[in-house]
Amino acid sequence: MTRKDVESLFKTHYMQMYHLALTLLFDEAESKDVVSDVFASLLSGRTVMRADNAKAFLMASVHHRCLNVLQHKKVQERFARLLIEDSDTLASDDTAEQQMQMEALMRYLQDNLPPLTQEIFRLRYLQEMTCQEVAEALNVSRQTVHTHLKQALERIRAYFNSNSKVI
Predict the structure, then answer these.
(1) Residues above pLDDT 90, as percent of the chain
(2) Phi, psi (5° rounding) for residue 45?
(3) Is 73 within 8 Å of 26 (Cβ atoms)?
(4) From CA 66, how far away is CA 143, in angstroms rounded?
(5) For residue 45, what is the enclosing H or E element?
(6) Domains of the chain: which residue ranges?
(7) What class, spelled out in words, does domain 95-166 have in CATH?
(8) pLDDT of residue 68
(9) Mean pLDDT across the stretch 66-79?
(10) Mean per-residue pLDDT for 24-40?
């Protein structure tokens, strides 16, 4: 698909795609990110679209990406609750062993996450900023924040699965 083809699709279908995303996500910036991702995928060649029903394909793509974003948010919220519960437990039940375990986790994060991912993780979960606030503070898109948080959570999950003694 050529750049002109994608530009034509953008001009024709952007507003409908954006309104669908906004209806599902209730967030203007995130809705724009989702629609932009669909077009970026077309431009990069990662997604191949049949020309016979472009509108249906684009709307379905937006719908699926929105569902993925919503599912990802649920995972992040569950992790945040667990992290908060663990830190509350540490504060109220301040044993030396638990404190050492939390310090080991923090060292693992520092040693194994890229600097931007560390900063995004720290702002989101330790300073309890929203994804939008993190994006604005670091001058990145919300999708970038979500991507880095997903990577951090995957690494943490793998670490805990292989080192069950940490918690």
Answers:
(1) 20
(2) 90, 0
(3) no
(4) 12
(5) none
(6) 3-69, 95-166
(7) mainly alpha
(8) 85
(9) 80
(10) 90
Ramachandran angles phi, psi of 44, nearest 5°: -75, -15
Q: How far apart are CA 100 and CA 121, in angstroms?
A: 20
Tokens of 68: 């993925």
Residues in the chain: 167
Q: Residue 98: is its pLDDT beyond 60? A: yes
Which amino acid makes up residue 142?
R
How is residue 119 written in tokens? 């900063």
Compute CA distances 6 → 14, 16, 29, 58, 104, whole Å.
11, 15, 21, 11, 48
Q: Tell me the pTM.
A: 0.51
Q: CA 12, CA 161: separation in Å to the nearest integer?
A: 47
Q: Which two tokens stand for residue 49?
A: 């679209």
**Encoded amino acid at 153, one letter:** L
Amino acid at position 150, single letter: K
- For domain 3-69, say whether CATH 1.10.10 is its number: no
